[in-house]
Every structure is written in structure tokens, then in C-alpha cells.
Design brief:
Blueprint (H helix, E strand, L loop, with lengths): L2 E6 L4 H11 L7 E7 L5 E7 L2 H9 L7 E7 L14 E2 L5 E9 L2 H10 L11 H10 L4 H9 L4 E9 L6 E6 L4 E4 L4 E4 L11 E4 L4 E5 L4 E5 L11 E2 L15 H7 L1 H9 L3 E2 L4 E2 L9 H5 L3 E6 L2 H17 L3 E5 H4 L10 E7 L5 H12 L3 E6 L5 H5 L2 E4 L12 H18 L6 H22 L2 H11 L4 E6 L4 H14 L4 E6 L17 E4 L6 H13 L4 E6 L11 E5 L7 H19 L18
Parallel strand pairs: 17-18, 17-19, 19-20, 20-21, 22-23, 22-24, 24-25, 25-26
Antiparallel strand pairs: 1-4, 1-10, 2-3, 2-4, 5-6, 6-7, 7-8, 8-12, 9-10, 9-11, 11-14, 12-13, 15-16
């Protein structure tokens, strides 16, 4: 959600800022803009609604020279998408410009007071109050003024501010929304996501909540907002491969990322499986007191959206093979309950970005209650990776399409590894540990085999694109996958409504909708619930419903009942979600393409949901 970029140094700021905004497009946005401080100490601001190329066109005809600047991609929270509501926002005089991710919860009260004092507002956003507050309280130092202003602000923010009244610096601050300072040679950068600086530097400083940074071209100083004390921060190196944020011949990032899944599985498991001992080595968990981990008697998985569905797959795995009770909770709801947690409860936060606001808030609540906190994230140095006691990285590489595919599969793989890791400290036998590891090791080849069905799946998307509703059904391990299939279809091909249900629940309501115009997608591999799923297919067929079935290769009987069949290779039941997911992701992608949608950037959606 929203993207921030900033530059101060020796090159034209607008050139870097435009490039950075393009790299941040995947986060989701509806407008964009930048403000550049020229050598003549004038501030020039350009804003546009729509895609970055619209901003690029406007920049061609406008003066934007200067070596200091800030930029933003906005995903509307307060005020509809418009140029007036796009960032950066300024004060009355145009001397101060601000970009902001997050939500200022008390902005209405602040705005009313500012209006009484004569301030004129140009937008409907919460962000604009920050610029006017700085203007009202400015006493010569931008950083001291911002620190003073932030003490009266309630809510979440990642901020970057420039002012021609105190030039030569960018002042930044963070609370509950990600922000990094990236260090170059005689130049420095700021970003909401380190991918924005790929190709420029790999040196990153992560701001923590309550910190303010003063960034010049040669220096970076971090202080506490509360007391102005200097904070020592370590500079980290991050692996930022520019090639990973290119399409590499694919029409869309989404397709590229689906076809990268075999390699992602290899990367998620590389160096982590010890076959001859039936063990898994997870370096991120070795920092823990192993007795504490061994003695946990309950696991709560917190996540949102697609990540929560990976969590549900993990629930089945951990209970069946590690013998530990597991609950999966939505991050957006968990924090508002009064969960019963003690020191023998482990809370696992799952998030691709590691910056999902609701999940972070729930994680912090679990920490306050004394839980062992663990993370499964894809982004190194993210908030969840820093706030948890230990965790495991996905190693899925950058995922630029808004709809998560390869990160989702990698989350399931990591949960399978975690299951072995815990299971082998309990009742899981050497034989079972070895068997699961052997099957995980085969998965990249099996996924590649499944991907060979892509032309068939593309044809099915064309065939079924005339239908407006779909029901997705699965049981046990593939119940969450049915929900994932429905979610992806809604996300990517949003002219279609879809619902995912447990097979046994279908006759408790949803079957009322079924007729010849309401197809059902059955996730029905040859597993322990196959016969039950067959009965559900019979019930759909009796109502003249059309059936697309995803099943195990060699199962020809299913062709007697299904209208169309997609085959996947055989694997262990607990690992079938890795294979059944691929056809569903492809089906949604091709369906979106049938409608001519930008499947990388579905409308109204954001990649990293950093507000509640």
C-alpha cells in the first residue's frame, strides 16, 4: 500500500524518483507525484492520477531539476483518487512538502484547529495536516519541528519531508509503517521498500518505530522522537537483483512468478533438509532455547488474506504430523479478542512483506501476553522479522504482482519444513521424516509437470469466461486451496464472483445457487477424503452443475462425472496443496487476461497492506 521514495545527492532527483516509483508500482496505487527542490531553492511539485506513465508524461513538460526530492504512489484511504489528493502535500505557502504512508487518526480535530488559525487546505486527505502543522510550528529546524508535530499526532506513519526554509536535507520518521534509509556514495536514498533502490545501492538502515532521521547527501543521523537522543543504527547489506524485478519475456509479472515456483521451492528448501536423518535445519530458529520450543503445547498462526490460507494448510500439517493443537486467526480480528496465551503458546506470524499492519498489531499483542513469537516472511529486515524472537525466511525472491502466488506456495513449503522440525522433536519417526523430505525434494519437478498444462488451462479460462459465478470446493488439506482458488479468481478476474467452501458444507447452503449456469471447481486429488468429494460431485451433477476437477494423474474414472479435468502428479497428501494450487493460479490469471485486465495490478488492491 502506497510507496515512498526520496533522493538527496549529486544526480537529478526526478530521474531516480521516477525509476523508484516504477519499481514500487507492485504495491498498488491510484495516483502518484513528486516534489523536487531545485538549486535555486524553489520547490516544484508534479502530481497525476492513474499509472506512473501519466506522471512521466507530465514531467516532460515541467521543470523538475534539482538534486533533492521526494515522491509517492498513493492508495486512497482518505479522499477519492484525484490530483488534489495525490502526494506530496504542501503547506499554505508551498515551502514544505510531505509524503506519507499510514493513517493520521486524529486529523479531523487537528484540521479544524488549523482552519481556525487561517490555514487553507487543498485536499481531503489526512496527510495534509502534517504540512500545515509544520508550517505553524516552524522555528528554523525542520527536524525539531517535525519531532514536535509528531508528538500530537495519533496513528501510523512513514513520513518524508523537505522544506526550502531548511534545505539540504530530507527528514523522515516512522511509526507502524515501513521506511528505510539507503546509503550511497555522496548520495542517500529513502524508500518504503528497499526494492526501490535496486541498482543504486545495497546498503540499508531500517528505521524502527519512534525514530526520526535527518538525511543529507553525505550523512544520516537517527534520533529518538521522544527525547532527541541519538540512536546508533547498523547498516545492513541486502541482496537487490535488478533482474528479479523485470518480466524476462513474460507478458505479466503474475505469469512469470507462477512459472518461477519450481525454483522458489528449491530456494525455500536449499540447505534445510537432512535426508539421511529425516531432519530439517532452520537456522533462523537455532537462536531459540530449544527446550522452550520443544515444550510449546499450542500454536496460533496469525495472518491475513492469502497468507492466512497458507496458515490453514499448516494447521492440518502441524496437527497431523507434529501433534500440536493449532489455531489460525486473522490478524485483523485477533487483536480485538482476548486470546488466552501463556509462555507455552507459540504465535507464528505469516506475511510476504513482513509489513502487514493487522498482523503486526496482533503479533505485538501476543508478545505483550508472553507468547513465543515466530515469523515466516519473505522480506529480509521487515518489521515482523525484527519483532519476532525467531523465524524463517521464504527465499521466494521479489513478488511484484499484487496477487500472491509464488510467496503463497513458499509459505506452505516453509510450514511443511517447520512441521518436520517440530515433529522430529516429538513423535515423528525417522522413517516418516525421511519420507516427507524425499517428497518435498521431488516437488520442483512435479510442479514443472503441472505447469505443462498451461495451454489446457488457458483454453478452459476462455471456455468458462462467460460465467459470472463459481464455487470452489475441497476438503482437508485442499479446503484452504479451494478458498485460495476462489480468492485469486475474485482478485484477478474481478468481473466474476467466486466462493470457496469445504466440500461437506456445500449442502448446508451454497448448493441452493447451483444450476447449469453456476460451475464448480473441485480440488479432488486421490487422498483420504476422495470418496467424500465424489459424493459432493454427485450432488452438484444432480443439479445440472458443470464441474472442473483437479485430480491425480491416472484417475480416469473422474472423467465420467466432470466436464473438464486437470491432472496433477501424485505426491503425499500433505503436499498436494503445492500442486493443486498451480492450476488454480493459472486459471485465475488467464481468466483475467480474457477480460483484458492488468492482472499484475487488479483494481482497488494493494500488495503490502500497511494500514488497518
Amino acid at each position: 500500500m502506497c510507496g515512498i521514495a526520496g533522493y538527496i545527492g549529486k544526480r537529478q532527483a526526478s530521474e531516480f524518483l521516477l525509476d523508484a516509483l516504477k519499481k514500487l508500482e507492485y504495491r498498488g496505487y491510484d495516483s502518484s507525484g513528486m516534489a523536487v527542490l531545485s538549486e535555486e531553492n524553489t520547490l516544484n511539485c508534479v502530481r497525476s492520477i492513474g499509472r506512473i506513465n501519466a506522471l512521466e508524461e507530465k514531467l516532460k513538460g515541467m521543470k523538475s531539476n534539482g538534486s533533492i526530492g521526494i515522491a509517492h504512489t498513493r492508495w486512497a484511504t482518505h479522499g477519492y483518487p484525484s490530483e488534489a489528493n495525490a502526494h506530496p502535500h504542501s503547506d499554505c505557502s508551498g515551502n514544505i512538502f510531505v509524503v506519507h504512508n499510514g493513517i493520521i487518526e486524529n486529523y479531523k480535530i487537528l484540521k479544524e484547529d488549523l482552519i481556525k488559525n487561517g490555514h487553507k487546505f487543498q485536499s481531503n486527505t489526512d496527510t495534509e495536516v502534517i504540512a500545515h502543522l509544520i508550517e505553524e510550528r516552524f522555528k528554523g529546524s525542520l527536524e525539531q519541528t517535525l519531532a514536535d508535530v509528531l508528538k500530537c499526532i495519533e496513528g501510523a506513519y512513514a513520513l518524508a519531508v523537505i522544506s526550502k526554509n531548511d534545505p539540504g536535507k530530507i527528514v523522515v520518521a516512522k511509526k507502524s509503517s515501513p521506511l528505510v534509509i539507503c546509503i550511497g556514495k555522496n548520495e542517500n536514498f529513502i524508500a518504503s521498500d528497499s526494492s526501490a533502490v535496486a541498482g543504486y545501492t545495497d546498503k540499508v538502515i531500517y528505521l524502527d518505530d519512534g525514530e526520526l532521521g535527518i538525511v543529507t547527501k553525505d550523512d544520516c543521523k537517527i534520533v529518538s522522537i521522544a527525547n532527541n537522543n541519538k540512536v546508533h543504527k547498523e547498516c545492513c547489506s541486502v541482496d537487490l537483483d535488478v533482474s528479479e524485478i523485470r518480466k524476462n519475456g513474460y507478458e505479466h509479472f503474475l505469469l512469470k512468478e507462477i512459472f518461477e515456483i519450481p525454483e522458489v521451492v528449491k530456494n525455500s528448501t536449499r540447505g534445510r533438509m537432512i535426508l539421511d536423518q529425516g531432519l530439517v535445519k532452520l537456522g533462523g530458529l537455532e537462536v531459540l532455547d530449544q527446550d522452550k520450543l520443544r515444550n510449546i503445547n499450542r500454536i496460533i498462526i496469525i495472518a491475513c488474506g492469502t497468507a492466512s490460507l497458507a496458515g490453514f494448510v499448516g494447521e492440518y500439517m502441524l496437527e497431523e504430523y507434529a501433534g500440536i493443537p493449532v489455531e489460525v486467526e486473522l490478524g485483523s480480528e485477533f487483536r480485538y479478542r482476548k486470546p488466552i496465551i501463556d509462555s507455552k503458546t507459540a504465535v507464528i506470524a505469516i506475511s510476504q512483506s513482513g509489513e502487514t499492519a493487522d498482523t503486526i498489531a496482533s503479533l505485538l499483542e501476543a508478545k505483550r501476553k508472553g507468547a513465543l513469537t515466530l515469523g515466516i516472511v519473505n522480506t529480509v529486515g521487515s518489521t515482523i522479522s525484527r519483532e519476532t524472537e525467531a523465524g524463517v525466511y521464504n527465499h521466494a525472491g521479489p513478488e511484484l504482482s499484487v496477487a500472491s502466488t509464488k510467496a503463497f506456495v513458499s509459505q506452505i513449503i516453509v510450514l511443511a519444513l517447520f512441521t518436520i522440525y517440530l515433529g522430529r522433536t516429538r513423535d515423528m519417526s525417522l522413517v516418516m521424516g525421511k519420507r516427507i523430505i524425499e517428497e518435498i525434494d521431488k516437488l520442483p519437478c512435479l510442479i514443472e509437470e503441472t505447469l505443462k498444462n498451461h495451454e489446457q488451462i488457458k483454453s478452459l479460462a476462455a471456455k468458462y469466461s462467460k460465467y459470472k459465478n463459481f464455487l470452489f470446493l475441497g476438503r482437508k488439506y485442499n479446503y484452504p486451496i479451494a478458498r485460495e482458488g476462489a480468492l485469486k479468481l475474485k482478485e484477478i478476474a474481478y468481473h466474476i464472483h467466486a466462493e470457496g467452501y469445504a466440500g461437506g458444507e456445500m449442502k448446508h447452503g451454497p448448493i441452493a445457487m447451483i444450476d447449469e449456469n453456476f460451475p464448480s471447481v473441485f480440488v479432488v486429488p486421490n487422498d483420504s477424503v476422495y470418496e467424500k468429494m465424489w459424493s459432493n460431485m454427485e450432488e452438484i451433477k444432480a443439479r445440472r452443475g458443470k464441474i472442473i476437477a483437479i485430480t491425480t494423474k491416472g484417475n480416469k474414472n473422474i472423467e465420467d462425472i466432470a466436464d473438464d479435468v486437470i491432472y496433477i502428479p501424485k505426491t503425499l497428501e500433505m503436499l498436494t496443496p503445492v500442486l493443486t494450487t498451480t492450476p488454480l493460479h493459472l486459471f485465475a490469471a488467464y481468466m483475467g487476461m480474457e477480460f483484458g485486465f492488468d492482472i499484475d495490478k487488479p483494481r482497488n488492491l494493494a500488495k503490502s497492506v500497511t494500514v488497518e
